[in-house]
Amino acid sequence: MNIEEFRDYCLAKPAVSETFPFDEVTLVFKVAGKMFALTSLDKEFSMNLKCDPERAIELREEYPAIQPGYHMNKKHWNTVYADGSIKDDLLRELIDHSYELIVKSLTKKVREEYHL
Fold first, then answer.
1. Mind listing the domains of the chain with CATH numbers?
2. What are phi and psi of 17, to 5 degrees?
3. Which residue ranges does UniProt annotate as crossing the membrane (predicted)?
4. Which of the residues 48, 66, 76, 79 could staple to 70 if both were Cys, CB 3.0 to 4.6 A apart?
5. How far apart are CA 51 and CA 8, in angstroms?
């Protein structure tokens, strides 16, 4: 997966927007206004994704390209380096997992408002 495929995959999800809330090079994807994925446009392609804490530990132990979230809460976020060592199917699964965690955290009212 490259950065364009990552962007397209994230934007294809319901109620997703892309923003640059931190600076001109940090692309952030939000669902209903809450961040679920981000990447830097000026560094080696990697993505920060929210993850269940127990699963995050398992993934980090199994895959060297998955590290504690850079500049994020390391308990809940992973940085995933797209260095070719992780198959695209797993990358899509991790993006989906991050998205679903955020959707679950939204109030019922917000989920209904965005048809989630």
1. 3-113 (3.90.1150.30)
2. -130, 160
3. none
4. 79
5. 20
